[in-house]
Amino acid sequence: MTLTTTSPADSAVTQDGDVLVLRISDASKGGALDDASLKSATTALREIARGEREVGAVLLLGAGRNFCAGGNVRDFASAEHRPTFIRALADTFHDFVTALLDADRPVVAGVRGWAAGAGLSIVLHADIAIGGPSTNLRPAYTGIGLSPDGGMTWTLPRTVGAARARDIILTDRVITADEGLAWGILSRLVDDAEIDDTAAEIARTLAAGPRAGLAATRALLSASATATLRDQLAAEAHAISTNSGSAEGVEGVDAFVGKRTPDFAAARER
This protein's superkingdom (predicted)? Predict the structure, then answer.
């Protein structure tokens, strides 16, 4: 199914089955981050965390030809008091990032065109990011005399290594799609026309999967960067044994033995 866009305020939050679809940029402003859309997306993510919205995965898409070209610099320039204005924008952005974390669902991004500034920060929070020939990534902060937000100084070193992250951020380096794939920022490259649909299909596949198992796997992957091997082995043993007794875990094993496709959705309802 092809996912289309309309105005940023109206289309920021939609749902495709069990997939929450978020578009937080404004195509009419070159793909700049849209504050109202960001707040709507944050509200929806908080609903997931509170158990008020049934969702198995989150899909991040752009509006128009760019995924997200960063903050609206023209708004920065026209603000009556720039530090106060930009602090409010950063707080709103960081509310979104923490809501994405608290929702505890697999995150897939379809990264078409530019992902710059806040756009790159968002891509770095995706579990799986799909790009194409048009995809370009750029920190874009030092180019306007500012420093990063959205967690970029935390996520990028963990993704590409400390030395490369310093080079990218400090020199405001443009990262091509091929580099993004080689360095682990992007997960796959497809034709530009297939980016959104490929990302949507992956999100739907994840949403149909074992939610407890996926949540445990994501938590293990996140913890692995700072855990010792002994601690990680203990965490893995606890997670796999716990999940083996869950309805989804029982269904997965029984389906494998029975040579049938597991129905995790039905298992969750038992």
Answer: Bacteria
